[in-house]
Write a sequence for this structure.
């Protein structure tokens, strides 16, 4: 008898997928309570709740300062730090575990000039004098807490809720829960300020255990934002449509018995999205249509602010065109990390983002978009009050600052507090899980109901630990 060369399945999942023309994978998905892509159970679980949405925000622009900006030199003024400059940390303070392990370092004063701004009188340093003009729109959260002592864990947790990789990013959860307002553009877009690699790379905007279709789409920070979008010369849209239809037919046939392969489904959808984007995206990202005065508002007329200004203006155009979540990285490659020469490093970086972010807030407000666009500023952690290498500061996940504006947030207020030296959050602590829960709440989504079943567990962005802070709305 001839010997047949059968492909023997190497796992139970592979066996069930192949057995009975793939019906086994449907049974496995049911047993694991996982959605079968394309089946009714995979439908968006939040869409039916949208008519009852109470959140004012429709979109999010997250200005992420990668590397950890110093809260002590920007938005959290500590007069005692000035008085004790050069002295050791008082014994009444618990010695923190530091990323770089330096111990016994003296306290380092802030060299900034601080002023009260707006009717609210928020204290903000001269490093953010332009953003400070919007003090009455800002809710400054001075009591943020993270578990990530290093950049890999900190950036991962701020983006996904966990210090370990493998979970969906916040933007992916928002995409999964609310979807896009514009089917011709991605719901989740990421833009960096350079070609530098963000720590953890694309996992920061990945979809984790969700279908890959929910992951973020990276736009370029230089030149044409969306590469390879145009058809080759002499190649018509009709030809492109025929090519995609044929490719989709092949892919769908291949995917028919591989419903657990979300990467293939995401690729099919990405081809279709790219085709739709060819018609709408060029208009959405065409900054040439903006006036010189608007470009100057964002700082595009100055070399030091041109890159982040362009990205902020692009973010405004994207949310204006229905993109749900835009994340703008500053300092890609952990450039905000200032273990030494903090004055030099932060002076340059703050100058590069201050005017563009202020311009973004001004522009959103004058267009009537700030009420429905939640703007977030912050990094993965803050910095220590103790010095490192003489003129720098180490990582501080125990207490740091982020701020929010627009999207229903009540401005002109400070939420929570760190101790007198800015080392630990002591009042109204907001862990990263609470921040994520609050962001979803502002978007009108109950974070306890935004669930994705994975391996028999009802997974949430906050890993069942977060609480939305209503003070951002009520004050």
């Amino acid at each position: 008898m001839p010997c047949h060369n059968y492909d023997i399945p190497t796992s139970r999942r592979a066996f069930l997928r192949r057995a009975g023309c793939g019906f086994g994978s449907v049974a496995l998905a049911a047993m694991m309570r996982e959605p079968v892509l394309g089946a009714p159970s995979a439908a968006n679980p939040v869409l039916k709740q949208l008519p009852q949405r109470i959140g004012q925000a429709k979109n999010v622009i997250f200005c992420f300062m990668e590397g950890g900006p110093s809260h002590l030199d920007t938005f959290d003024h500590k007069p005692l730090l000035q008085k004790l400059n050069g002295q050791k940390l008082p014994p009444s303070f618990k010695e923190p575990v530091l990323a770089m392990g330096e111990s016994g370092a003296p306290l380092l004063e802030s060299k900034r000039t601080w002023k009260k701004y707006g009717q609210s009188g928020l204290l903000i340093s001269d490093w953010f004098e332009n953003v400070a003009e919007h003090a009455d729109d800002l809710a400054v959260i001075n009591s943020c807490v993270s578990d990530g002592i290093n950049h890999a864990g900190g950036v991962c947790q701020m983006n996904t809720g966990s210090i370990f990789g493998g979970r969906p990013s916040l933007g992916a959860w928002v995409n999964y829960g609310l979807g896009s307002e514009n089917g011709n553009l991605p719901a989740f877009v990421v833009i960096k300020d350079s070609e530098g690699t963000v720590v953890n790379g694309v996992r920061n905007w990945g979809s984790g255990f969700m279908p890959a279709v929910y992951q973020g789409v990276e736009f370029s920070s230089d030149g044409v934002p969306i590469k390879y979008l145009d058809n080759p010369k002499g190649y018509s849209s009709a030809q492109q449509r025929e090519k995609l239809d044929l490719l989709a037919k092949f892919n769908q046939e291949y995917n028919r018995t591989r419903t657990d392969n979300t990467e293939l489904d995401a690729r099919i959808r990405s081809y279709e999205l790219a085709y739709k984007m060819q018609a709408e995206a060029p208009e959405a990202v065409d900054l040439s249509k903006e006036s010189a005065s608007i470009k100057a508002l964002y700082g595009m007329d100055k070399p030091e602010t041109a890159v982040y200004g362009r990205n902020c203006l692009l973010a405004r155009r994207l949310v204006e065109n229905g993109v749900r979540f835009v994340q703008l990285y500053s300092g890609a490659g952990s450039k905000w990390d200032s273990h030494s020469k903090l004055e030099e490093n932060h002076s340059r970086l703050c100058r590069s983002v201050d005017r563009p972010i202020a311009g973004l807030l001004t522009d959103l407000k004058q267009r009537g978009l700030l009420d429905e666009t939640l703007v977030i500023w912050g990094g993965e952690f803050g910095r220590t009050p103790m010095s490192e290498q003489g003129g720098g500061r180490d990582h501080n996940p125990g207490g740091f600052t982020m701020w929010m504006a627009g999207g229903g947030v009540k401005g002109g207020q400070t939420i929570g507090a760190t101790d007198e030296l800015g080392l630990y959050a002591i009042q109204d602590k907001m862990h990263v899980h609470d921040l994520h829960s609050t962001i979803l709440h502002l978007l009108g989504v109950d974070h306890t109901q935004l669930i994705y079943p994975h391996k028999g567990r009802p997974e949430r962005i906050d890993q069942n630990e977060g609480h939305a802070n209503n003070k951002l709305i009520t004050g």
The two ends are 81 Å apart (CA to CA).
